[in-house]
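REQUEST FORM: STRUCTURE PREDICTION
Request ID: SP-0412
Submitted by: Lab K.M.
Chain count: 1
Length (residues): 287
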Amino acid sequence: MPEKLRATLVRAPCRGNAMGMDYSAYDELKVDRPEDGILRVSFNRPDRMNALTSETHRQLGDIWRDIDRDDDVRAVLLCGEGDHFCAGGEFDLVEDIVNDHDLRMRNFREARDLVYNMINCSKPIVSAMQGGCAGGGLAAGLLADISIVTKKAKLVDGHVRLGVAAGDHAVLLWPLMCGLAKAKYHLLLNEPVTGERAEEIGLVSLAVEDHELRDRSMDVARRLAAGAPSAVRWTKYALNNWLRAAGPTFDNSLAMEFLGFAGPEVKEGVAAIREKRKPDFTGKTKA
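STATUS: Completed
RESULT:
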């Protein structure tokens, strides 16, 4: 099959059928229906800590529009296969964004779409996070309406360490959830937070033991799916007006992040991570 034709087919919008919406276009995510009314979306690269490729990043932003239109879905469960939820974007993707202006602009739009499409998706979303949680994966996990983590999970917004502003979700969500002082501490210092601590400061809804994560998150999704659909969805819509009101702040932070991708600091940040050393941001960057 010609590559151009294949790309067109992969990106085609989902269509309804007798069994509900067809999600086969989202081939870099694992999508299934574990129970009536519940759609499960999983990061599915366990051998790479579920790191995002360029295509996974695009699909993760797009899928929420189709879920919103799927009449057979009453609740969504977002999770990661294996020991980790999602480690964020692959370093190869980051380097491509740095070196390719068109790709940088495309990823800017996709990052914006991920946030607004999850906010505007009418269906309630539950996230189940374990292991490493960073980057775009962490953004999706925290944007869920109810976020559940294991107590030992490691949540970190790694943007500042990478050499770019914390723009893909953090400036929008962290101050609202855990307060401005805690947000500044964790975002400016790139300080990780455990799942247990994340619950204590209000960053996530619930922290559980490792062996409880799957059952507890499925139980929450099941309860949401059994609830009065209009009441649940309209309550979500009203609550998310807090996030919509902060839209200009998010847009500004995202623009600053992608401005950084065109500068020298991100090159030093990526090199330091690859070489397993501390970055040198003192003005002597190896750009």
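NOTES: Confidence is low (pLDDT under 50) at residues 1-18.
Reviewed by: T.R.
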